[in-house]
What does this fold into?
Amino acid sequence: MTGSGTDAYLLVAVAEGRWTEDIKILTKEEYHDGVLSLQGCAHVGRSSTAWSNVDERKAAQNLKNDKSGAYHIPSTWGKGGQAIFQEEPPFYLYVQEPSDARLVFTVMDDDIVGDGDPIGSTSKKLVDLIPSVNEKDLVNALKDQVLSQLRSSSSSSINEDDLVDSVNVPNVIQDWSGDLKLTNKPRKKDKGGQVATGAMIGAMVAGPAGAAAGGFLANMYEGQVRGRVSVNLRYIPIPSKSGVKRETYKAKGGLPGVSWGDLYDRHILELQQQSANEVQSEEQQQLQDLRLGGSDLEFCFFVSHDETGCSCAVYRSLEKRMIAISFRGTCTPIDLVTDASIVQDAWVEGEDVTKEGVMKIYSGFRKSLNSISRRLKELVLAAVEPGEDLSQYDVIVTGHSLGAALATLFTTDVAEYGMDAGRSLPQLEPSEPWWNSLATSILGKDSKIGGAPPPPPRPKSLKMYNFGSPRVGNDAFVAKFDSLVKEGRIDSAYRIVNGEDIVARFPRTVNALMLGNIGYEHCGPTVLISQPKTKRNKEGEIIGKNEVKDGLLIWVEGESDDDDCPVRDGVALSNPLSEGALLGDIFSAVKGVTEPSDDIKQVASRLGSVAEKVTSRLQKLSATDITSVVGVNKKFSEREMKIIQSFFNGEAIAHHLEDEYYQGMGLACGYIALVGEDIRPIQEIEDAV
It folds into this structure.
């Protein structure tokens, strides 16, 4: 590459013809940021950086150490600097419609911090560089090779496999090499120096009037586009596989040996067998297929942000008209536990966080989701079958750990505002038209929507299931979430917590005990899955029945019973004389003695009974009894003590990890699911011991 940049690297993208907004920028506008201006390019190739402090000798040494071989040649009089890329690995871009695609090249000036600034760009139609790029040419080329093989064969019969092997597919691969001159550049951001120079020259020629004219003309001048790119292109056509049934995607795990897909299949099969044994109506039989993804579940795309680490995968089933959005947790459990920053930002950007009743969420969660939310919504809207609408699709949102927190925020946004791709997260400022970069892709033509803008589309149903979610917001935000569930905008929302998972109990407000006011609270009902203590021998084999705590493998808040959720903090302060508190129990014991009586024996009997009750109660004295004396709720203290104990015995962190959730969910479904082992029904194991 040549040009005025010093730390140069190259971006390459494909602008498809259907994204007319992008094509308009490339063909009609003189000043733009090239690849960075495009809205329809999900896939962008990037070269390494030719840093200005790396020369040819140092680059050669870098190559020996398996590093980039790019280096910089400084500019000289009359000749611009050059960026040379030695043994640069290729990158691949998928072209959906080759005959209508345009390659976009942008030279960037890199920075140590950030992605740098664009220097110049150019774009070329793929057909201008490689004329034969449509599928018909590929088919004709392959057909000619097959006919040639048949004519040259001396045998009357040819084995089909031999014939396929003999066809030289690489013959239809086409290459192009050459120089592309940069034709566009971004507008100058700082023109102060050139305006001052123009005004000074103008003043020297024509006084004050000349100074004004010179400054004006200098402000209009954007400079010339200089530089060129030398590239090697290879076009590899991919024959259409229409009519070929793709293999159904099966969910795997982040850890080797974890197979969520197998566990899910076993559970669904068991449910279907149970339903088959029941007497069902015709309508119920039609709803027999319980699979969320159907037989055509497929992975669509992955969205991530380098700076924030926010990542999300999207899957779909056109058969079921279902889209699944899965946020990935990108931080370790200990990060969430020990993070001392509990700073909150307004959920709706622009609102005053100092005002009472304003919805506030953890600032780190908002920053993370804000980095990809808009792009994610654009791609989700484009993931529906052509000719269909998001309102025909069920959307399921999920995630683990940090991903669970992001799933909660994303669900809240879509539930209240729809799939608004005109902005990232909620804001006071008006959104851009959500269809701005999508209408042309969905409708397949340059469409203009007249009249009042339509509201952002909403899915047919919206459900959220997250795992090990930390608390995300204050009481006002939780109240908003609960109202969306009550109004039916969120069809269902469950927060699965595995045993003593510490992350599901954070972040916490430091003055919770002092003021009795919890600044962070959970959204949606808790589903608590228990972790039994399994007896094993040295070889790891089970030698006894599982000891399941409280006899329950799964507990659902508000459904299993009326007990308080053990994952929530509840009320920190209580009356010291309430039932169950130390002073309350002692007060109840001695209360009868204060009643008047003339019978000395009766009074003595009462005193003896009181002494016995007080002695018995004091023998059961615990740390939580001591805190109850100063008005701390006993149940609250018990939960706090349990958190501390679980942290020190290792359960707090261990129960947050994927392998423990895998085991816990397996038990809740009636299976023993251990990493690297076959999934087995609990009943079979219990019958064998």
Notes: The chain is about 35% helix and 15% strand. The radius of gyration is 34 Å. The mean pLDDT is 75. The longest helix spans residues 192-220.
